[in-house]
Amino acid sequence: MLILASVALAVPFFAERFDGNALPADWKSRVVESTGGGEASKVSFEEGQLLVTNGRNPKKYTGVTRKFELRGVEWLQVQARVTTVDLDVEAAAAPGAVCDVVLRFDGGVNEPARPCRPRADGEPYTRFVPVPEGARDVEFAMYSTVPGQVRFDEILLEATTVSFKTVNRGHYTYYWQGADGFRDENLVANDEIFDKAVALLGTGDTSHFDVWKYPDVATLAAYTGYQDQSYVEGDVLHTTQRTDARSIVGMLARAWGTPSPALADGLPVHVLGEWEDREPRMVTRRLVGEGKCPPLAALLDASQYATLGDDRLLVAGALVGWLVETKGSAGLKAVYGAADPASALEGATGMKLPDADAAFRKWL
User: What mean pLDDT is reported for the chain?
Assistant: First the structure.
């Protein structure tokens, strides 16, 4: 059970279990979104749950909504139990897909409670959502834009108060709760990560990041909807770590494009110069000596990279070090955001991949 001592006040707007076979009072069933004429969602009730069902090609997304005024409200707390049945996995992963609770604030700001994905377990969850500045009302909406069925139950919306501590330092504004703060060595380390990354990348020296620190993954999920150690949204980093080099370096490197997994891992390892107290070049040299170092072709292929074991981060860091030392930042940049990093590496080094692999191993 998630318990936040910083939640000082909770005033319920409503609590609804949908125990009947019709919409409760004050709720509306209407088309929430539309992509044209055609098939519409169906809304029904079964065994105390609200069901929203879409066919194979929905065009009109019917949902159930209720609107509330927000005078003096700064945070909202949502609790819900949401289950999916035969949800289209590919459609659920598409940008903008909805299959859960959505808070629709006036001014056009939509805040999904969680990313859309199949959820067969129906575990209850909690979200804390800040009210956008100037918002006067909110519409609580339950609907789906994805083929398949979504079941809603045990819905609760409350006005609540949440307290975060904060400090500004350098290129960061830090937020945390209670005693789960930052030690001075964490702040120094984050400053050093920023400076080293900017020196290498040549970008981002005027950037400013908000860093929200949470004690665990469950609390991070309660504030963002994402079940992960870290989540980046624009210039805002939500993290369970006091020093999150991978996220900070990744944010600074965004101008270089979207990297392959190996380069996304390798760049922060190179910036730090080590990973878990191990130096990437030395570890990779040992792996070569043991015949266990993966070839560059496997390292740069996303599907193969995921299977290479824990030492892959250090090998990726060594690869970035080799590129920087032999081809400079420009060589690394040419490979970092390339759609085909293997071909880009051949272009940056002027060598076919097997020859580049041999040169990399010799450099070690």
Answer: 92
